[in-house]
């Protein structure tokens, strides 16, 4: 019997790529570098600042300019967390459906708290989500199972009766390591982790409505 559904944030609940990519382009402009299209930056947004600096500047954390550029990028992003960010099509209806079914849902993201908390507020999800676990809430971030296990404690649900939904290989790895059922979404950022059919997810969906349909046939009222 399903007890709860936990979601990744970037690339799963919310399309944060326009603000992350937009922030990267502001930084590129300030540094006198050429702009990148959102289509180019989009797959890298799954890896947060590290991915965007790799895409925009071709640098990794070992590079001497990395810390300075990462700090600047995060300052810029903090000022435009939700200018263009919105829930993916079908997410609002899915969350309504979960609540109608009496299933609690929560957020487990690798985004840091200082960005997650205001963004969740601006997306009007704060009163609805049963937990917000960020990349720095627990000692380790995904692909460690710790954040998901922490969320299960907060929701008082058993991992084996919980779905974890995400758009990156590390989401599926974390969910499986926590003992959850896992769902991979193909509409997110996917990253560079190879075909999602090979991630080992229990279910793959192309649109949030497919999860609603799956839950309607599997979930029981609490
Ligand atoms: O900001 C990140 O590092 C990625 O965030 P996510 O875990 O919600 O996809
Ligand atoms: Mg994601």
Automatic annotation (TrEMBL):
Its EC number is 3.1.3.18. Keywords: Carbohydrate metabolism, Hydrolase, Magnesium, Metal-binding. The keyword Hydrolase applies. InterPro entries: HAD-like_hydrolase_sf (IPR050155), HAD-like_sf (IPR036412), HAD-SF_hydro_IA (IPR006439), HAD_2 (IPR041492), HAD_sf (IPR023214), PGP-like_dom2 (IPR023198). It holds the Pfam family HAD_2. Gene3D superfamilies: HAD superfamily/HAD-like, Putative phosphatase, domain 2. It catalyses: 2-phosphoglycolate + H2O = glycolate + phosphate. GO terms for cellular component: cytosol. The keyword Metal-binding applies. One of its GO terms (biological process) is DNA repair. Pathway: Organic acid metabolism; glycolate biosynthesis; glycolate from 2-phosphoglycolate: step 1/1. One of its GO terms (molecular function) is phosphoglycolate phosphatase activity. Specifically catalyzes the dephosphorylation of 2-phosphoglycolate. Is involved in the dissimilation of the intracellular 2-phosphoglycolate formed during the DNA repair of 3'-phosphoglycolate ends, a major class of DNA lesions induced by oxidative stress. NCBIfam families: HAD-SF-IA-v1 (TIGR01549). This is phosphoglycolate phosphatase. It comes from Dechloromonas denitrificans.
């Amino acid at each position: 019997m399903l007890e709860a559904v936990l979601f990744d944030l970037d690339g799963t609940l919310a399309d944060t790529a326009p603000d992350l990519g937009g922030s990267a382009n502001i930084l590129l402009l300030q540094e006198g570098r050429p702009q990148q299209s959102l289509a180019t930056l989009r797959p890298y947004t799954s890896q947060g600042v590290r991915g965007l600096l790799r895409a925009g500047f071709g640098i990794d954390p070992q590079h001497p300019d990395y810390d300075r550029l990462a700090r600047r990028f995060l300052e810029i992003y903090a000022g435009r967390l939700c200018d263009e960010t919105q829930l993916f099509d079908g997410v609002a209806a899915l969350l309504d459906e979960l609540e109608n079914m009496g299933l609690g849902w929560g957020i487990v993201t690798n985004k840091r708290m200082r960005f997650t908390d205001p963004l969740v507020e601006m997306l009007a999800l704060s009163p609805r989500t049963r937990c917000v676990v960020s990349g720095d809430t627990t000692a380790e971030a995904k692909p460690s199972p710790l954040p998901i296990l922490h969320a299960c404690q907060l929701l008082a649900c058993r991992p084996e009766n919980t779905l974890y939904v995400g758009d990156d290989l590390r989401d599926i790895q974390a969910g499986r390591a926590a003992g959850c059922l896992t769902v991979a979404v193909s509409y997110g950022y996917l990253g560079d982790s190879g075909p999602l059919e090979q991630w080992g997810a229990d279910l793959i969906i192309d649109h949030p409505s497919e999860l609603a349909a799956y839950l309607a046939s599997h979930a029981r009222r609490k």
